[in-house]
Design goal:
By secondary structure, the protein is mostly helical. Helices cover 68% and strands 2% of the residues. A two-stranded antiparallel ribbon has the order 1-2. The chain is flat and about 75 Å long.
Length: 338
């Protein structure tokens, strides 16, 4: 019998005794070398410190300011508790802005992803139904053209489309050329029924190309043999898209939906460029616009901070719902079966 077997307590103590290093999977301890410590500090400690300083700490400050009556231009502030939040949820204008943000978070990602995915499928696997798997002819040209709006700054896009939408602008002029004279002086951004729809079109138009390229890269990662097997089994284009393409790039779609939802929940640049006043009867007003007005026009930074906290919470809830829906609809199981 070995010494360890004769004295189990001594064996356990020897195992738990510190040896100046980190225990590995094989039972040996890794020495804390200079290279190892440097790697951990640079690639773990530094990013974590930056995240805590520039993300978490400002959010904590915003939560604190939201509980005060700070004007933003003086060092004096009084703690008033949740009064700012009560005022916001009793404010009809803020509730309109909140609803507009929710509407954008639902419509913009859905429409953008459907169009981007359709275009990506066309330029990758939407070509002839015989021969090698490929996209439409001249697909590279379509990629460049569709991606072009994304390289234009958002403020420039907003200004350009605000001029196109004016009653005497390019859109009404083109509609008049095809015989639609009823739109000769129609105010697309000045009518409550069309202002939000016209704004959503601009946002979708500016992002379809980018997410199309994202989905093209994802589809290119699917083995061609998978599509060839589906073709041999007699699957049509629609069946291939729903049974092969979407399940295999589901993670990419989920990520795109979250990013687009975050964009829609902000949308300050587009809304401010197209509808600086919030649109007719506040039909296009969003929370970020109301936050800006409250902070810099009214000098109520405490209440503006409460708006920012609500916007952050809504964004986190949106991301959590996307993950939850993806989980409940069996995303992982479908990928495993495919």
């Amino acid at each position: 019998m070995t010494a360890a077997g004769a004295d189990p307590g001594r064996a356990i103590a020897a195992t738990l005794a510190p040896s100046g290093g980190r225990k590995t999977a094989g039972g040996r301890r890794r020495k804390l070398t200079v290279d190892y410590v440097t790697f951990m500090v640079v690639f773990l400690g530094l990013p974590l410190a930056i995240f805590l300083i520039f993300v978490i700490w400002p959010f904590i400050q915003a939560v604190f300011y939201s509980l005060t009556d700070w004007s933003g231009f003086s060092p004096e502030m009084n703690i008033i508790g949740v009064e700012n939040y009560i005022r916001l949820f009793n404010d009809d204008i803020f509730m309109i802005a909140l609803w507009n943000n929710v509407l954008l978070a639902i419509v913009v990602p859905l429409v953008t992803i459907v169009l981007s995915l359709a275009l990506a499928t066309m330029v990758t696997v939407g070509g002839p139904s015989h021969g090698p798997i490929r996209g439409l002819r001249n697909s590279s040209f379509y990629r460049v053209v569709s991606f072009f709006p994304y390289v234009i700054p958002a403020i420039i896009i907003g200004i350009l489309w605000s001029q196109i939408y004016t009653p005497g602008g390019l859109l009404n002029g083109m509609l008049g050329l095809v015989g639609l004279d009823m739109f000769e002086s129609f105010p697309w951004l000045g009518d409550e029924d069309t202002a939000m729809g016209a704004t959503i079109f601009v946002i979708v138009w500016s992002f379809v190309g980018f997410y199309m390229v994202l989905f093209v890269a994802a589809i290119k990662g699917v083995p061609a043999e998978t599509y060839e097997a589906a073709r041999i089994d007699g699957a049509g284009r629609a069946r291939t898209a729903f049974s092969i393409t979407i399940p295999l790039i589901r993670d990419n779609i989920q990520t795109a939906y979250i990013y687009l939802g975050i964009l829609a929940l902000d949308a300050f640049v587009y809304m401010q460029a197209l509808n600086p006043g919030g649109g007719p009867n506040n039909s296009t007003l969003v929370m970020s616009q109301q936050l800006f007005r409250t902070a810099f026009n009214k000098g109520e930074f405490g209440q503006a901070s409460a708006m920012g906290v609500i916007l952050a919470v809504v964004t986190l809830i949106f991301a959590a719902l996307v993950f939850l829906v993806n989980r409940l609809t069996g995303g992982r199981e479908e990928r495993g079966r495919v």
